[in-house]
């Protein structure tokens, strides 16, 4: 699909790759597949900004779109960062290089491109895309909340079709909401710790890091002789999903606890925002259909909604997960240009 009219570009900046897409003024995506180039974020800000410029040039060349057709660029990155794209002064997993601390990522890219850049964190961008795909023309009249399981637990809150960013731009950091652990943890199971310094937050259970640090070490003591006991921790954590797809008892216990954690997180959200839809994303979306449906059903079963809420609330998976960030970033950019 080629367009001669105005467009926006969406750039999803990840730990290893940048994903780019193009959205035309009518809201149709010009690119229907994943288009990736190296992100090089571990090499520091200057190299990473250069990489995003190359990702922009690459998607324009691929689609045959002229640079002067581009109204704006939507950029998303992992957090924590401010609402205007300044990386946290404490850094983060993806931005461990000290030069990233307090770096104005959005501003630097805008200066290099000479095009307005609109920023969202990656959880918010994916949440926005899920919201618009699910609600379509009714997106502006609905609300939703998304929890996206990755290395950490990302998320986003959408109200009346708009991302809720908060005063410092850090709203929707769902992973660091403390959840009740009574009945979720087994007798004698240690309270899980999060890399953020909290104990018992949602990310300490529902994340790849939570599996590696907290869940897998415990459940290996309950399943002596399990094959994962012979595998180094980080690699073993990544293998748990495959075992879950095969119905392995240890893996199913881990994913049941993760689903319970998301259910309890959603129950807290229900009492704050009462959203019309609850979306689940992350690696579980990329799993085999029978497993991801079981996981979503288990999340739903552990979300203690009132009868009135249950009648109107939907539970769904984030669609097109590998493209959701870039597409959500593009949607946010188009919305900003439409309002301006």
Automatic annotation (TrEMBL):
It comes from the Bacteria. Coiled coil: none annotated. Pfam families: ROK. InterPro entries: ATPase_NBD, ROK, ROK_cs. Transmembrane segments: none annotated. Belongs to the ROK (NagC/XylR) family. This is Glucokinase. The gene is glcK.
